[in-house]
From TrEMBL:
Belongs to the nucleobase:cation symporter-2 (NCS2) (TC 2.A.40) family. Azg-like subfamily. This is NCS2 family permease. It comes from Natrinema halophilum. Keywords: Cell membrane, Membrane, Transmembrane, Transmembrane helix, Transport. One of its GO terms (molecular function) is purine nucleobase transmembrane transporter activity.
Length: 482
């Protein structure tokens, strides 16, 4: 039996009606869609760790480190935490989902907890560690599965479409097709005056045309073609580096530089175990409010992503539940705990996994491919960093459009379904949060059912969950967290 056949038997290729090539392409697609985190996460977390330093350096355990060294340490911990989580996802859960330190959660870590509340970054890592331990326990005893199964059906069946709109919104902004506007919040970007936006539009339509024609690997081809075209125009002096080069490779003078990623700093010992010091320096109220917020946002972001991407991939059963959901939940619990121990923020399942699922990824081999590519990126960061946002975010826009088909699973004639699902779909992009969209839909469902005289259809646990989420909204909007 060949090695490919052995892989097929282990991951169940025949059972899922897939094959090695399909899973490989799906893994590469997911990696390309989420690889930006390798650069973006350390950029965000660096702001927290460098906050107490001066003259471009910071002191950790008595030694001074430059901003570039801190950035590279965080890039390494980002990669390692992602790899560990995805290996659990691939080999234990056998699902095609990618994981990494989550966007939003890293910004909350850096700008709200450390820079806003003034909590030491070591203590912030301690909060993430405690969150991870809680997740491990709740996952092991089945509590997370129980809570997720309490989600009302209209919420479960609308998550996919909500994530689709969210992906569209994120992707269109990053590709500069949608721009900020002081009067209307957002408006159409200056595409005709912006080479990056124009290339993004061309690459997006190329991707959609290839997808419409059934070309396998359409998203990969779209990303690579757009990136190559951008670099070709850049080197041909058709456009400036400021216009087309990735921002991660630009110097303050607007020139392209690979210095920050071609001389890797692999010593991460200053960050490893920093959370232990953080446990000794705790302001009880602030600390547990931070743990509470990390916990809730991660819990519902992960739940929403798993359900939404699973709906998109056809993995849910008739009740809208993902069989053996506790296994993929264990992957993010282990990833979060391990990540906090080595020095990175909360690890969660990525909505970009839907890009690989769209390419046919349906087994753990897809996640294994993503993990391997993340590991390879330890020595190939320049390749990842060289993919500009207007190319990589094509995946989000294309997949966002494809995920809108999820609205067909919603019973729009039932007021409880329409209101609960409608809030789930719209609140996600408008508040830039999967968890907020889920919470809005979960709170609305029992209220609407009761208003319709159908309170017997509401599980008691759904009332408890709705009440807890009202508390979450109060904490997150009351200014208690700065």
């Amino acid at each position: 039996m060949s090695s490919v056949d052995q892989l097929g038997r282990y991951f169940g290729f025949d059972e899922h009606e897939t094959d090695f090539k399909t899973e490989l392409i799906a893994g590469i697609t997911t990696f390309l869609a989420m690889s930006y985190i390798i650069v973006v996460n350390p950029t965000i977390l660096s702001a927290a760790i460098m906050a107490g330093g001066s003259n471009g350096t910071t002191t950790i355990n008595g030694a001074e480190y430059t901003a570039n060294e801190v950035f590279q340490m965080l890039a390494i911990t980002t990669i390692l935490a992602s790899v560990v989580a995805m290996l659990v996802m691939a080999l234990y859960a056998k699902r095609p989902f990618g994981l990494a330190p989550g966007m939003g959660l890293n910004a909350f870590f850096a700008f709200t907890v450390v820079l806003g509340l003034g909590i030491p970054w070591q203590t912030a890592f301690a909060a993430v560690f405690i969150e991870g331990i809680i997740f491990l326990f709740l996952t092991a005893v089945g509590a997370r599965k129980y809570i997720i199964n309490l989600f009302p059906k209209p919420v479960k069946f609308s998550v996919g479409a909500g994530i689709g709109v969210f992906l569209l919104f994120i992707g269109l902004q990053e590709m500069q097709l949608v721009a900020a506007d002081p009067a209307t919040m957002v408006t159409l970007g200056s595409i005709a005056q912006n080479p990056a936006a124009a290339l993004g539009v061309a690459g997006l339509f190329l991707t959609l045309v290839l997808w419409a024609r059934g070309v396998k690997g359409a998203i990969i081809l779209g990303i690579f073609t757009t990136a190559i075209a951008g670099w070709a125009l850049l080197f041909a002096d058709v456009a400036s580096a400021n216009a087309l080069a990735p921002s991660t490779l630009l110097t303050e003078s607007g020139e392209v530089s690979f210095d920050a990623v071609t001389s890797p700093h692999y010593d991460i010992t200053p960050l490893v175990g920093a959370f232990i010091d953080g446990l000794t320096n705790i302001d009880t109220l602030d600390f547990w409010l931070v743990v509470f917020t990390f916990f809730f946002v991660d819990f519902f972001d992960t739940a929403g992503t798993l359900i939404g991407v699973s709906q998109f991939g056809g993995f849910l059963d008739d009740d809208g539940e993902l069989p053996e959901i506790e296994k993929p939940l264990m992957a993010d619990a282990i990833g979060t705990t391990f990540g906090a121990m080595i020095g990175t923020s909360t690890v969660t399942t990525f909505i970009e996994s839907s890009a690989g699922v769209e390419e046919g990824g349906s087994t753990g081999f897809t996640a294994l491919v993503v993990a391997i590519l993340f590991l390879i990126s330890l020595v190939a960061v320049p390749v990842v960093a060289a993919i500009p946002a207007y190319a990589s975010y094509i995946a989000l826009v294309a997949v966002g459009i494809m995920m809108l088909r999820g609205v067909l699973d919603i019973d729009w004639q039932d007021p409880a379904w329409a209101i609960s699902a409608g809030l789930t779909v719209t609140v996600m992009p408008l508040t830039y949060s999967i968890s907020n969209g889920l919470a809005a839909g979960i709170i609305a469902f029992p209220l609407m059912k009761t208003a319709m005289g159908e309170h017997d259809d509401v599980h008691f646990g759904q009332w408890i969950l709705a009440a807890i989420l009202v508390g979450y909204f109060y904490v997150s909007t009351s200014g208690m967290l700065g």
